[in-house]
Amino acid sequence: MERRTFLKVIGGVSAMAICSCKGSVDAAQTRGTGNPPASGGQAPVFLAGIKRGVSEEAMKSAVRAAAEAATDFSWLSKGAAVFIKPALNSGNPYPATTSPIAIAAMVELLKQKGAGRVIVGDMSGIQHIKLSPNGATGSSRRLMESCGMARIVQQAGAEVHFFEEAGWGAFYEDSPVAGSHWKSGLMTPNILKEVEHIILMPRCGRHVLAGSSLGLKAAVGYWRTDTRLEYHRDASTFQEKTAEGNTVETLRNKQRLVLSAADKILTTFGPDNGHVYQPETGLAIASESVVAHDMVSLAWLLQNRSKIPPSEKDCWFKDPYDSQLIVNFVNKYYIVRKLGGWGSAFASEKLYRKDINTIWDDRVLNRAYQVLGGKPKVILQAANDAVPEDLRNRINEMVT
Description:
By secondary structure, the chain is of the alpha/beta class. The chain has helices at residues 3-9, 14-19, 56-70, 100-112, 140-146, 149-155, 225-233, 238-244, 249-254, 290-305, 324-340, 342-347, 363-371, 389-399; strands at 39-51, 82-86, 118-122, 130-132, 135-137, 159-162, 171-174, 186-189, 197-201, 255-262, 265-266, 276-277, 281-287, 375-382. The protein has one domain (34-312, 349-399): Rossmann fold, CATH 3.40.50.11440.
């Protein structure tokens, strides 16, 4: 959400927010985590260091190193089609959206490995795009052009694709795991039927409603408006449905790699704006496991949030996720209303925020452990020689 729009939306509740910058703790904040998850198997996560101020080619080299360490690409047959899913929630540049240079590096690597079609696509959020049976308002294509992604990825040899341009009927129903909190199947774009493989390329950032926007959260970009409406309207299980959305058959069968460029981190607000922090050594984070990837990516977000000035994160208009009042108000009266109208807004459930001080506090990850094979034992490995040992040790402590 744009800060300007956000401030207008919450104007009616600003006085209450100022009185209570930190939302009151509600017992329901911790709902949905259930029993401790079973332990899963080992899940390697590879880190490539990216020094601040490096050249575009050095950035690409780090991305390639992380990708080639994380997978041997044996799944990629000559001529196969690959879909790259970025985070294109707005028209703002990286790190509000996925790094175009990182995507270009992945496109070039896939072409070198023998891929045929490489398609980069997404559908932006309701603040910019609304798809209905009667057509679409807004344009993900214009947003991709605005943030600089379209030109760079096309120069690298990829196609671009925008789900709303294919229309309401260009989606199919894909079902999440049994026992999920979803009432209906998830309406998923037909383009995913045309590809053999999917690579997810999120970014590392804060999110005004979810606390963070990493790999698991990026699945929302696939969903048609009616699926997004259920997601936001039935908000008491918003975090659990985020994880469960990654259990649909298409993603379980086709997603091969998750890779984030994270040399710049959106440490507050999110997903469209916030305080950008660039550490001396950034990271490319890659894993075949979206859960293990997100454990490390969230640890990296938390580590970098700890380094920004308190003035950037200590009140609602700088970091509104900290206010229960704001989180619920924005979801109900801005997001749900735009998706489904005032009737849906009045009928929507409360969205409960939860402090995320460690990765173990995150409801999305806690549900992911339950539905995506258990809590993995993360094995951190360096993919190049630019990862300081103390940095790797700090992250390892946070995910162990």
